[in-house]
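Technical appendix A lists one of the benchmark inputs used to test multi-chain prediction within the project. The record comprises two sequence entries:
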Amino acid sequence: MAEISIDKVAKSFASFTALHGIDLFVADREFLVLLGASGCGKTTLLRLIAGLDFPTGGDIAIGGRRVNDLPPRLRGIAMVFQNYAIFPHLTVFENIAFGLRMKRLPKAEVETRVTRSASLMHIEQLLSRYSGQLSGGQRQRVAVARALAMEPDVLLMDEPLSNLDALLRLEMRAELKGVLQESRTTTVYVTHDQVEAMSLGDRIAVMDQGRIVQAATPIEVYRNPATRFVGGFIGSPPMNFLAARRHNGGWNVAGVELDGPSVDRSEIQFGIRPEDLAPAEEGLSGNVRVVEPLGAHKLVTMHVGDTLFRAIVDSDHTIQPGERLTLSPRPDRVRWFDPKTGASIN
Amino acid sequence: MTAVADAIPASTAVDARKAGRLLNMAIVAVLCAWVLLPIYLIAVNAMSAPADVTGWPKRAWPGFHFGSLSFFINYAGVARAMLNSVLVAALTMIFAIGLGAPAGYALARFRFPGKEPFRLLVLMTRAFPLPLLALPLAVLFIRTGLDDSIIGLALVHTVLALPFAVLITYALFMGIPRELEEAAWTLGCTRVQAFRKVVLPLALPGIAASGVFAFVTSWNEVFAAAVLTVQNRTLTAFLIQSLNISPLPLKFAGGAVLILPALIFLFAVRRYLFSLWGIANR
């Protein structure tokens, strides 16, 4: 059983607080993604779980065992680093075998595990090469193979795909998902790429400035963002936000009357994703500034009032910059947020 | 605006660039001559017959007459002095690496108060003029019994070699990413094991180079050696003493024997000496 329990974990460096009281539970065999922009604390949290750094407050437990004071080698973890950290003075075989040799496994066992790991990552033919003779993508596979060969309780990955070019990243993402699903190891994966997060995670923990803002399944985070920040961070293009003023029983959003939550406030925020808008006779309207034909659909950038607003319309829909476009939001996809705290209102 | 730009015609700009390049080449030529000329003169004259060395016109090419060299090497005391030089240099190398490499590692890996002043201080020790220290040092050595000993001289040479050992190993360890050690920790190593299995194999060439540099620094050092040794003279001290009154061919022969090992060693480790200017080698 390799569940990870993070209880009120905090980390400060001199005057700077990187993590404020993080509470997180990763179930056994779950694939959890830590998602956030640079500097939000996700790598710091991963390093605390790994034991490369120690928390200034709180407790971390792996498999029910408190690991706060344990060094990395006693935590049952294996880690894939952002820059791969392949040992340049060893062959690929020796790199993958490194951890196994440290465990004093018999030679035959080492051989078996290394070849199995290597064939999982399709690098069997590179076993006698050195890291200097490998491409970036190949090095990345060696790094993953090295971690998998350890058969750890917990697998930690720190932005392993961020140094690869776009096409390779796409391929590796699919491959990685397949391999990790088969291995069924508890995994914590750090990334700033929300597409990676949506694709790979059983659950996503969105982080901002040292706090976990929302931890839920990818579709839940996408459809029901807990805060305005999550709504704007996840999804490309991001969610649109407009001011909503109380009007009679409902809300006035850019001149359109909509039914909304009954809260005791005079102004809240209206949120809708670009793909949840459809051209209609009545609705939110504005002047189109830019039309980007993206092949699968058209991305329309317009101004509603004086706010920048994006919509995704069908490729065949004829619309030109300068024209006026009216869009009707799907009622079940509309989201409301508190303008001061950013929290979602139900 | 355009009027000002037109005032400097294109041809003058080209001339200025050409002049700059010429100046560059001239400076490089002077520096090369500064270093190569003495080596050339020694090479020619050490391997020529004594008559050619003292005669006129001077030879431009060695006569490959090894009389001077063989006389020098068989001269009483030379072999002994060379042995002393080797011993002192070897000890210097061991001390400099033993103290310098850990210091370089600490500077590269750890944050501690006083780190920057320490780095500066290490460099500044080289700025202190040795002649000023020589007499008080000699007195101290006599009092503590280190006078005229291999170890005593090795200690002084260690102080001279240490700044470079520290700086070279510092640049070396900076060039080995911390991530490699961290990866080793996650794969079952303690800090010491990670250092031994991952950092050391990668750092060894550089550490060897700074060891060689310490060796050469000690080998070439003449002032402290002359002041602090009487019976157990090193080669440099010996040369100062006896070559003063020797004929010219022997002076050249002595010079050749002195600089040859240093030249060979330095040539072998030249790549690592760039880190003295702070360029990490990786």
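Chain B has two domains: 2-46, 71-277. Chain B touches chain A at residues 177, 179-180, 182-190, 193, 198, 201-202 (CB under 8 Å). Comparable benchmark entries are summarised in Table A2.
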